[in-house]
Amino acid sequence: MHLVCKFISSSSLSTNDLQYVLTPDECVGLFSRVRTPKDILAQLPSTLLQQITASAKKNVHSLLNAIRVELVKANWVCLSSNVRRRPLTSKQLANFPRLKLHVDRVSNSTAERVHKANYQQVVDDVPLARHYNFSPVEPSPEHKIVVEFAGQWSSNAGCLMLGTTDTQKEKVTVGKSDRENKHRSLATFKDLELERKTLYIKIPCSDQPQPILLKLAEDLQPVDKETQMEEWDNVLVPVVPLYKSGSSWDGYTSGRVYIIWNGEVWRELQVTNDGYFADVDMSNSRKKTTETRHVNIDGSSLFPGENVAFERFTILQDGVEVFSGELDINEQARVFSLVAEEVEIKFVGFEHEQLMVPTHPSPMKASSTLSDEVLGYPLPHIWIPYKIKGECQGVYLYYASQALSDAAISELESNYESMAVSLAETSDYSSNQEFTQQTVFALPELSESQKVKAVVNVQNDCNVAAVNIPPPGSEIILRYRVLSSTDQPDDYFMLQNDEHSWSQKAYFRCAKVDEDGYLNLRFSGWPEKVKEVDILRGAHASRGIETPETFKLREKVKVTDLLG
Hints:
It is a single chain. The chain is α+β, with helices and mostly antiparallel strands. The chain has 13 helices and 36 strands. Helix 1 runs antiparallel to helix 4 (60-73).
């Protein structure tokens, strides 16, 4: 492999080296495309090789994590083979305080080398009275915040971060094994001012310099540095989703894992083909869809006794014209893609009083394409908030074989209690310091035939939790040819089972048209006990009326028939 960098001890760092220094994340990024550990090991000094465990040398991810840990300690410094295009910024160095100390030491060193002549240097050896200068030293803050992790496992790319405040910059730390309590690890933020802090999970990205930040808590109050607790107020549990394959357990090698917390999708992770979990930067790739509204215009209600069919009109939203059109033969029209709760209707062909008409929420429109996704470094497990500020959290996990659309995410957030798997059984950790339940249990050892055995088995006996997430059921797709003259965007089909109080709608506006010109209306996530459904159609008999009419097309259709 072409030499891309070299490693030197921090004590040998010189002024000439500063323009070549790489941060730990930049160094790891250089090797991110290397496929075998052998190519990376060939570039490491022998002294550095001795500090890396044999288990970390088995695969690229573990090796890169181990190298990053050594670079964060700043016993070693990575130098690029080329001069940096841009100097290191103080913001970059703030994330790696130990590296910053060495860079500052070299930068501030102004002593020049003295070249001796061939004669003895004249020395002023007259003793003088000592002069002492007293410089008051500010006492360092004496408070801390401790986050507890279940289990003890090898470090990875993930870490925890406290956000910047008025008095202190952001701080980053990682979990370290608690020697006195083998069931847990502790991540400790030291030297904190007595002020409220915001806590994040920080995941470095492979495709962009900015990390993914996942907010865990706000207004955390530091405690005295001598404080100790049997269980800390903030506890994270590392989990690995598994499913039953015959009589044995297996892990996923594709698809997406969604974490629902406080009723919203808090985290989305892509499952890699070797069983790792890469966070998706939802702020970049899946921005929150803006809610849109629509207006129903009924000319006969606005102008009783007059015929205003085919009259042209404009719509003003917050005083700005956003649409122009004409009423149909029934004196009606429906206009979508509005945002205001009330709009003004102006007719072009005649004078009239100001007409303010209310709007109504519209179903979400189907996305045309998925935007480019930014992924975090793959992790061997997923950190779940079990306790925040001493309170148990209601967290749910959902697995999908492919990325969910915005409409599907909205559906999941509305029905997560029935669609997703609850992690309430993580409470077993507080009573037993381990996981022994049906849904949340100790991570089992996978057989040699399982593809994800490497990433799972290395975490055995580490008190990492397994979560039973069965593969998703099949999907029902109803294909429908739209009649543009009568069908409306918020018309829908609905599957319903009265016996088990289950129903699900698929709006025309949320569906995509296939190459044959048919809408594909998708249904999923029905309870296992639902064996038969009624098929209903919701349609607007009139464009000027908001409430659709619902009528039943077929009764007690077997789900298996719809799947077929």
